[in-house]
Amino acid sequence: MPDLSYKALDVQSGTMAVDAAERLYNMTDPDEIQELRESMLKYCELDTKAMVKIYYVLKNNFFLLTKYNKKKTLSMEKKGSKVLRI
């Protein structure tokens, strides 16, 4: 998903975000603080968007799998097969 690429960001991973937070704690220059803060916020925004997309994919696939499995189970029961319900 090209819209979820971290390559163009200054902070590109969770590890880099932790390192940036540690650096931010010790910074004194207001301009550097603002620049790093904005970089961290861009990373967090993209990371959140990625997690939301993952959530929707999982949610939709779970629904489809559940719906498919329910139909298959009902079909098997109609044919006289024993179905283990969990």
List keywords for this structure.
86 residues, mainly alpha, rod-shaped
Summarize the structure.
With 86 residues, the chain is mostly helical.
Explain what the structure shows:
The protein has one domain (9-78). The model has no long low-confidence stretch (mean pLDDT 81). It is 72% helix and 0% strand. It contains two helices and no strands. It is mainly alpha-helical and 86 residues long. It is rod-shaped. The chain starts with 13 loop residues before the first helix and ends in an 8-residue tail after the last helix.
Task: Describe the largest sheet.
Answer: none
Count of structural domains: 1
Q: Please indicate the percent range of residues in DSSP E strands (runs of 2 or more).
A: under 5%
The global form is rod-shaped
Q: Bin the helical content.
A: over 70%
| Record field, number of beta strands | 0
N-to-C series of helices and strands: HH
* Global Rg: 23 Å
Number of helices: 2
Sheet/helix structural class? mainly alpha
Average pLDDT works out at 81
Low-confidence stretches: none
Task: For the record, give the distance between the C-alpha atoms at the N and C termini, rounded to a whole number.
Answer: 36 Å
Give me the secondary-structure topology:
Elements: H1 14-26, H2 30-78
Helix pairs in contact: 1-2
